[in-house]
Amino acid sequence: MQRALSFDQNPPLALPMRYFLSAPLFAALAAALLLWQGDAALASRWTPATLAITHLLTLGCLSMTMVGALLQMLPVVAGVGLPHARPVAVVVHVALCAGTLLLACAFWLEAPALFQLALAALLTALCLLLVACTIGLWQQHASGATATVAAIRLSLAALAITIVLGGLLAGALAFPELLSLPLPVLTDVHAMWGLFGWVGLLVVGVAFQVVPMFQVTEPYPQWLTRSFTTILFLLLLASSIGASLQQPQDRWFHAATQSAIVAGYGLFAAITLALLARRKRPKADPTTLFWRTAMASLLAALLLWLLPVAAGDAAHPLALGVLFIAGFALTTINGMLYKIVPFLTWYHLQEAIGRGAPNVNKIIPERHARLQFALHLAALLLLLAACYWPQQLARPAGAAMCASCLFLWINLLQVMRMYRRLQRQAQTGKQLAPA
């Protein structure tokens, strides 16, 4: 059973939009850094520029969008309200923006003092979010939202683990004389929980609701939604334990759990593609193209993850990151924003001006979304190729991705400008109307 949306506790449009408008700018900043640095940013996953770009994307873009979606979806889909939602949203947004910029600068400049400031800001933002969401999810959620709520709870638990691991890593860099940790292993586990746990589980939970709703497909099968995210979470725990095992005879356990995680996410991608192939509207709109590209990128990333890495091969981990972060997560975000933002805008305009609200499909012109999808796809292919030919393609890839993200931001900004203009016109009309 799929949850019918409830708008009794719907937050104001400005609450999620502050996050949705910030996310493309952080992605554009990451792409601009790649454009500036060129092939030096793709020399290794460990260079200061690469680490700065990665965290601008994962914290500034992916997590920013996920937080905005959470603050919108919990009241509407699950029927639960967050305590002090508006001030919490403002504080989390400001602290997340500041912390992300500080962390990127800390990696870029290799400055322990900046790591300390970034750690304080990010812990403030993410811990406040966790507390607010935990209190909200403690309430009885609406019937029909079980699969989505379960995925949200597990993704928040994964975020908590990611915060602890990231805090340890940042602490080791901020206070190198106090903490001595196995940084490579800890970094891999931190990345796994952040990408496959926090981002991956939340995307799965959101997809259970928005793919059938906005893509007009059949619901995901019940055998998948019933315990799928719980199994994935347990596999991530097992893989974390396996990563800590140092004996050669124990490596089979780590490999087995990683293969199971790949199989699980591969199953989700394959079922999503099958649902999209049988959607009730035969013509693929831009959001359908984004979702198909995201699922294809996820499958490619999973296959690449299973391949052995040769010693000194810098391209393999970079390509894996491009496929998962830019190909799967960023592409999914594009597809979701082109449906969620027009729908929310239309709903709020219906309340403000009634029948004068524009049709939801006209709020963002389809040709604009199609152009941005073509630019995003070109940027994704260039980024992937640049992992293997960085000298020739790093800067063109950065330029294309920067242009794509700015195009998305302009499309979203135009929506907000239209919303405010129509809202002002409606208020003026009410004031001038005779009593």
Write the layout of secondary structure elements.
Blueprint: H1 14-37, H2 48-78, H3 85-109, H4 112-137, H5 146-174, H6 183-214, H7 222-225, H8 228-244, H9 251-277, H10 286-306, H11 315-353, H12 366-386, H13 390-432
What does this structure look like?
The protein is mostly helical. It has one domain: Cytochrome c oxidase-like, subunit I domain (Cytochrome C Oxidase, Chain A, Up-down Bundle). The chain is 78% helix and 0% strand.
Summarize the structure.
This protein has 435 residues and is an all-alpha fold.
| Structural Rg | 21 Å
The best one-word shape is globular
- What oligomeric state is this? single chain
Alpha-carbon distance between the two ends: 47 Å
Biggest pleated-sheet summary: none
Organism: Rugamonas fusca
Protein name: Permease
Keywords: Membrane, Transmembrane, Transmembrane helix
Transmembrane segments: 56-81, 88-109, 115-138, 150-175, 195-216, 228-246, 252-277, 289-311, 317-338, 373-391, 397-415
